[in-house]
Amino acid sequence: MKTLIAYATKHGCTENCAKELASLLKGEVNLCNLKDDINASIDLSKYDAVIIGGSIYAGQIQNEVRKFSQEKMEQLANKKLGLFICCMFEGDQATIQLNSSFPNQLVDRAIAKQCFGGELNIQKMNFFEKLIVKMVSKVEKNSNKTDIKDGTSDILHRNIYIMADMMNNAR
Ligand SMILES: Cc1cc2nc3c(=O)[nH]c(=O)nc-3n(C[C@H](O)[C@H](O)[C@H](O)COP(=O)(O)O)c2cc1C
């Protein structure tokens, strides 16, 4: 089986999760960063499976992921399809974000959908991002997740394993 993982990332968390997922998948796996122009006209015909992922900022996935999902919808119709997001919300809120990040047709027919958790890398954030995280961390000051000084990592490795397992065992 040949699999493509097409993703977009801002600060690297999604890329690291995509690489971890790739290491767990059987067969040949190609990684494609959708922010690299060279990947804009990627040919899906040589892949049996396609996994699409991105990260959530202010409730939205990257435009590149949205565009890729919409433009490739027809070619994705006969592929084993997986969808994932990286984000800091968990549970129902994360699921809502995942479902609203991809076209309904893809959400409905994906064989694996997972939220991989997220990372807040304060060093890589711009002024406005730091400000937003600071404001959110004040609102959630009882939460132990948002340590504004160092950032925080809350990757759900188990969900990456679950997705790999579902993709590997899909007929
Ligand atoms: C400015 C800002 C806004 C964010 N907005 C959301 C959000 O609306 N929902 C959410 O679940 N996570 C949100 N996050 C968390 C990111 O999705 C998380 O940091 C993710 O791991 C980033 O992945 P990346 O490094 O691949 O871009 C936000 C993070 C920042 C810095």
Number of strands: 8
The CATH homologous superfamily is called Flavodoxin domain
Percent range for β-strand residues: 15-25%
Q: Total number of helical segments?
A: 7
Number of domains: 1
What helical percentage do the residues reach? 25-40%
Which fold name corresponds to the CATH topology?
Answer: Rossmann fold
In CATH, the architecture is 3-Layer(aba) Sandwich
Reported for the largest beta sheet, the result is: 6 strands, mixed
Residue-averaged pLDDT: 91
Radius of gyration, whole Å: 16 Å
Q: How widely separated are the two ends?
A: 11 Å
Low-confidence stretches: none
What is the C-level CATH assignment? Answer: Alpha Beta
* Overall body shape: globular
String of helices and strands: EHEEEHHEHHEEHEH
Q: By helix and strand content, what is the structural category? A: alpha/beta
**Ligand names:** flavin mononucleotide
